[in-house]
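Q: Please design a sequence for this.
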């Protein structure tokens, strides 16, 4: 697939003497791809999104859209690009207009008949039919998001940019909306770059995940890859519970553990907790397993499983997920780990 939008050595620095908000970003989004931009608050996500929207001028580097350089905002009368639309974190709706008027207004350049037809089409597509005459203030967070989406999609942009689409929503609504949005985006075959500071939200929606840390891209890969083969401790920790120790720690327990990298991590769900003295539930391959003795430091009830923090001989804590019964704090246990599940991590 060819790249719809592509950055090369892109850097953004807000103040001349300040640190760079983005550094040397090389990112490419293919036509039809859904890319999620993930990183902590302040990592540069919004800055990158605005640069892709041609709302912010890069300090260095280039952005190409559909094979052509994206005109910087300083060279345009109206900042932005007609084929690129952004849904802002606060949705940027006109509060004094109804749902219908909010969409109608975006289409003001078109003739009346098309405008009417397109507004109705967008209302239906974004499941807003029946809410036409409602004032924006009376809408729920999810409904406001759908109006923002309808506005962004009104002129059929080739690239849709969304900043923290779930940022304004509480958790029950968010669960429902995540599925709705995923379904909507997948059906629409649009090219989407969406920002989230909640890594788990990205795993289920995106084709590709780009992880930003302090303005630099850490890894760009599929959801499966960032989860199973994270390259750095930061990426590993972002997507799930993981215990990370230097390679020589693991080699003390399993001499065959080899890697050229400095650290190895293990996901909490890959650790088998066995009460000392009890036969293992699942003995398969246990001859080669790494066996770590320890003491249960605390248990954290999570509904269908428990987080078990085990204090190891070196005083470090290792977290395992445990779905059985009968563990208690203070109990001695053995942790079984398949060496194949250890994740090599570079700094
Ligand atoms: P994120 O969206 O990941 O939270 P931002 O892109 O908003 O991060 O910000 C990245 C960095 O750039 C932060 O350190 C932030 O303080 C800084 N920054 C963002 N916008 C501006 C601005 N308009 N002027 C100066 N610094 C800014
Ligand atoms: Mg932001």
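A: Design:
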């Amino acid at each position: 697939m060819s790249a719809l939008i592509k950055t090369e050595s892109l850097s953004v620095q807000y103040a001349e003497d300040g640190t760079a908000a983005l550094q040397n970003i090389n990112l490419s989004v293919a036509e039809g791809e859904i890319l999620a931009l993930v990183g902590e608050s302040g990592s540069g996500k919004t800055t990158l999104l605005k640069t892709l929207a041609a709302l912010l001028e890069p300090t260095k580097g280039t952005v190409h859209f559909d094979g052509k350089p994206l005109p910087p905002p300083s060279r345009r009368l109206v900042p932005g690009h007609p084929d690129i639309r952004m849904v802002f974190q606060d949705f940027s709706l006109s509060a004094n207009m109804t749902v219908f008027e909010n969409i109608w207004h975006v289409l003001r350049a078109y003739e009346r008949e098309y405008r009417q037809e397109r507004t109705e089409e967008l209302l239906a597509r974004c499941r807003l039919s029946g809410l036409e005459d409602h004032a924006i203030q009376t809408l729920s967070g999810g409904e406001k998001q759908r109006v923002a989406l309808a506005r962004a999609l009104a002129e059929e942009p080739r690239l849709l940019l969304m900043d923290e689409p779930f940022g304004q929503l509480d958790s029950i609504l968010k669960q429902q909306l995540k599925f709705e949005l995923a379904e909507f985006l997948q059906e629409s075959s649009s090219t989407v770059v969406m920002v989230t500071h909640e890594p788990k939200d990205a795993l289920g929606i995106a084709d590709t995940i780009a992880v930003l840390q302090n303005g630099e891209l850490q890894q760009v890969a599929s959801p499966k890859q960032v989860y199973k083969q994270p390259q750095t401790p930061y990426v590993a920790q972002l997507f799930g519970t993981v215990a990370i120790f230097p390679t020589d720690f693991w080699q003390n327990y399993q001499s065959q553990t080899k890697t050229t990298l400095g650290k190895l991590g293990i996901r909490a769900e890959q650790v088998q907790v066995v009460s000392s003295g009890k036969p293992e539930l699942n003995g398969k391959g246990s001859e080669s397993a790494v066996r770590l003795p320890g003491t249960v430091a605390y248990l954290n009830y999570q509904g269908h499983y428990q987080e078990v923090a085990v204090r190891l001989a070196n005083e470090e804590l290792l977290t395992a997920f445990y779905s059985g019964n009968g563990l208690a704090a203070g109990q001695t246990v053995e942790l079984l780990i398949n060496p194949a599940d250890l994740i090599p991590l570079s700094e």
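Q: Thanks. Anything notable?
A: The chain has nine helices and 18 strands. The chain has a mean pLDDT of 90.
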